[in-house]
Amino acid sequence: MMLGEQCYLPCTPHGILELLERNNIETSGKEVVVLGRSNIVGKPIANLMLQKRPSGNATVTLCHTRTKDTAFHTKRADILIAAVGVPKLVTADMVKEGAVVIDVGVNRIGKTAAGKSILAGDVDFDAVKEKAAAITPVPGGIGPMTITMLMMNTVQAAKTAAGLL
Ligand SMILES: NC(=O)c1ccc[n+]([C@@H]2O[C@H](COP(=O)([O-])OP(=O)(O)OC[C@H]3O[C@@H](n4cnc5c(N)ncnc54)[C@H](OP(=O)(O)O)[C@@H]3O)[C@@H](O)[C@H]2O)c1
């Protein structure tokens, strides 16, 4: 994947790329800031978005717990991707007006009276949506995209195994 060769892409980063491409969100030359350097989200999405490919050609900054001033970086982001696992870490004052905000986080912050988990993203959705040009909700954003890309990989693997690709 890092060499830009044909391969099965990790599902969550692939879902983010598809979402950007299908919503005609330009990434070429844009400042992309990724929060979180996990092997399944942060590192691969940062790498994919700097490659010469659709939804790529961005200038990418990758932040983590040792980053000195995270807000300094997030405020510069044309596209901000949060994958940290900290509920509502990204507040409105950390986001540039008109930014595109992708919230990967899925955090269980309590239970309903019926015992169902209450979910929150890594972004303070209600406040940040007032500034963002586009923003993904939690639940119902990157989660379903991840599942869809897993199905896509599965179908392609089956076709390859059957000699159809
Ligand atoms: N929607 C989906 O389909 C999907 C898929 C995968 C994950 N997720 C969710 O995404 C979130 C992240 O999961 P993950 O597996 O990618 O990561 P992870 O393994 O949980 O690691 C968290 C990353 O965030 C960084 N981080 C934590 N607090 C931070 C802070 N205050 N400022 C900056 N960076 C911070 C950590 O930095 P260090 O490396 O320095 O510790 C680490 O790199 C979780 O809520 C998870 O449930 C959702």
Please give a structural write-up.
There is one protein chain. This protein has helices at residues 11-22, 42-50, 70-74, 125-128, 142-161, and strands spanning 31-35, 59-63, 79-82, 100-103, 107-111, 117-120, 134-135. The protein has one domain: NAD(P)-binding Rossmann-like Domain (Rossmann fold). Helix 1 crosses helix 2 (42-50). The longest helix has 20 residues, at 142-161. The model has no long low-confidence stretch (mean pLDDT 97). The protein has a five-stranded parallel β-sheet with strand order 2-1-3-4-7. The chain is of the alpha/beta class. Bound molecules: NADP nicotinamide-adenine-dinucleotide phosphate (NAP). The site of NADP nicotinamide-adenine-dinucleotide phosphate has 26 residues, from helix 5.
